[in-house]
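Protein modeling request. Please complete all fields; requests missing the sequence field cannot be processed.
Requester role: graduate student
Desired output: 3D structure, token encoding
Chains: 1
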Amino acid sequence: MKAPRAVRVCAILLLLLAWTACGDYFRPVAFPVVPTQPNPAFTHVAVILTDNGTNNPGASTTIDVSGDSNVSQATVGLMPVHATLVAAATRVYVADRLDDTISEFSPGAPTPVTTISLPSGSAPVFVNTTESSTVYVANSGTNTVSAISVTNNAITNTTAVGTNPVSLAETFDALKLYVANQGTNAIPGSVSSLNPIDLSLNPPVVASATAPWVSPVWAIARNDSQRVYILDKGSGYVSAIDASNDTVVGTAKVGVGADYMIYDLVRNRVYVTNPANGTLTSLDASTDALIASTVSIPNAVSVAALGDGTRVYVSSAAISGNTVSSQVTVLRSADLSVKTTVPLASVPISKACTEQTWSDLSIAAAGDYSRVYVGNCDAGNIAIIQTSNDTLLLKMAAPLSSQPPASPGGTPPPQNPVFVVAGP
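Delivered output (424 residues):
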């Protein structure tokens, strides 16, 4: 009995094996792998102000650096001229010169825009802060500086300074606030030193005998808060101020007409553009001797430095016949040798902006070093340069203006880009 039973069991097993062999083989199922999608929240931004004429509100355009896209457009006041990013670039404050207001908003959303009214005739032209709680405003029309609380967007204090304040620099330790007062044709300029806590005035900063205050136009602070630098367009000098006692401890000649200046904290340099002389001057900020290196860049207008310390970008514009052509010269920071030039645009003189100043070709570098932005006032667009190969990536059109189109049924001309600021 056992043998037949064993035979039957073996037969059943053979049948099972045959059945499984003839059936479907098991194959692994391939599921598509979906890559991680980019975060819709952007981390690096550039903000561009555009002028819409004397009778129409201007605009602020926010660009997402990683996406090269316009993520929001806010309406600001009449003739916006300067802006600063506050609270880790989560808020923007804009000086609207013509209607005596400051516009405040989030760079990620076009609304709401909070309007902070200043006294009539204030003509705000510059906003600056190194704090998260207070923003300071230079009011060129009333010769004052105002403090605005970031908490409630209210003016908390105003103090009188010198004639025609046009630039501010707060030290990074928030212990001093310096004001470059440009003066007028009849009144020489000056430099004011304030206590940011209550805007009380310290004694005026006395200029060096070799570099008197004529028309100071720009102020910047060194990142260690020990030195502040003042650019005087009229005298053609940069003066270094010891922030501990408000004395001038060094000067360097950059040429009469120089009107724009930045500080490169990686290289510890001060860069100055001079459109009158067609130069870029680099000053060694590690010493009060301010040792200078100067390179020729015809019609140099504005300058930006990459945060990795590798390159410097200088915008310039030149007139040839009836055409205005703009470009960016890329310099190696190590020796200021020219790496390349990036042509931007050529437009008829009739379409060019009226003044040849740093605001005509305002330039800034993105916080991640990947892009450089140029607000081309003449061409009505924002040029985006890709720094990996220093080529023009695209030209982003500025918002449409309120001006009538050139022909019936056409598109209105774009607004004029006048200032670019990039976030960290």
